[in-house]
Write a structure and sequence with these properties.
Shape: globular
Mean pLDDT: 85
Distance between the termini: 44 Å
Strand content: under 5%
Structural class: mainly alpha
CATH architecture: Orthogonal Bundle
Oligomer: single chain
């Protein structure tokens, strides 16, 4: 009986992780890809205009801190002059934002 319960828990958790990954990709496509690109390269017209970073670059990934990425997604991002460069993501929970940060980490080549 314990094995059946353990297997059921694993199946539910596995399904939740798959759903979470799909949700993160969907959220990225809806809220981030316009500037950051589908693959995180920042090679969109808007991304180039505002100077977004290429998240496929190992050096960019090494300099990026998860806490800073989380904060930028949640609160928005301003440049050194205080001008808003990125608006806060709308309608995302903290778990959704953590999943986006994890997705961003996956862009590293």
């Amino acid at each position: 009986m314990k094995k059946i319960i353990a297997l059921a828990v694993l199946l539910v958790c596995g399904a939740a992780l798959v759903a979470s990954a799909a949700d993160a990709k969907e959220n990225w496509d809806k809220q981030c890809a316009k500037c950051h690109g589908k693959e995180g390269k920042g090679d969109t017209k808007m991304g180039q205009k505002v100077g977004v970073k290429d998240y496929t670059d190992a050096k960019v990934q090494a300099e990026l801190k998860d806490e800073e990425a989380f904060k930028a997604i949640k609160q928005g991002y301003k440049d050194k002059a205080g001008k808003e460069v990125m608006k806060p993501a709308e309608g995302l929970s903290d778990d959704d934002i953590k999943a986006l940060v994890k997705l961003m980490r996956g862009f590293k080549k």
